[in-house]
Structure of ABC transporter ATP-binding protein:
Amino acid sequence: MTLLQARGVTKSYGPTPALRGVDLELGEGRILAVTGPSGCGKSTLLHCLAGILRPDAGEVHYRGRRLDTASETERSRLRRDEFGVLFQFGLLVAELTAAENIALPLLLAGHGRRESRSVALDWLDRFGVRELAETVPGQMSGGQQQRVAAARALVTEPSVLFADEPTGALDRLVGEQLLGLVVELARERRMSVVLVTHDATVAGYADDEIVLRDGVLDPGGLGIAAGAIG
Ligand code: ADP
Ligand code: ADP
């Protein structure tokens, strides 16, 4: 089943479009890598798909319903209940402990304090960082922060995870361990993933790959992930 579909998505910040007429489909449980050189529009595409930016033209459909023209209330609801986001830098709340950061999306979704905390601790376990429960981000390594950020992105069990260079700020080994875990958890839950990256190793975790050049899909794009199945 197709979860997300983009048709002719176009977005400009200034005179030159950052994205021009991009089409794609994301199936349930599929991992899609979006690759291409820096500045080709990968993040802009991710933001349009995730209901963060509104395209200037074209359409985005989520589970068959228009997302790009949906009300801000509906887009917020989808971002809260159906989507998870993981960026290059975790963007954790500096004043909150790891457990509190991970519990936050559950509290915002209306779950109780005790339940939210207990689920947050389970996710810390899954990422192998239970001992960080009472630690604030400033006292963690970059890799630890990104594990906590990944746990926070997954704690609501989203249908789609949007990951933008999730390992871009990490050492290779630390990054691959993190990505391996995220992909394993996504596969277990039949979660779909949009994985923006310029790194061939990272793209190699995906089932499919699309290549952007100057805001346009490269049709013959062999991509950088030799292992990607079309
Ligand atoms: P990528 O993720 O592939 O590096 P981006 O989507 O971030 O590409 O950027 C695509 C183009 O749009 C680039 O030329 C970038 O400088 C420009 N751009 C991105 N965000 C903004 C913004 N908020 N304001 C103006 N220009 C932007
Ligand atoms: P990425 O390539 O992952 O988007 P960047 O460092 O290019 O990372 O962008 C970080 C932030 O800055 C994003 O919110 C993006 O929209 C914004 N940005 C990128 N390029 C520009 C630009 N030329 N002018 C203004 N904002 C930009």
Remarks:
- The helical segments are 42-49, 72-81, 98-108, 113-126, 142-154, 172-188, 200-203.
- The longest strand covers residues 2-12.
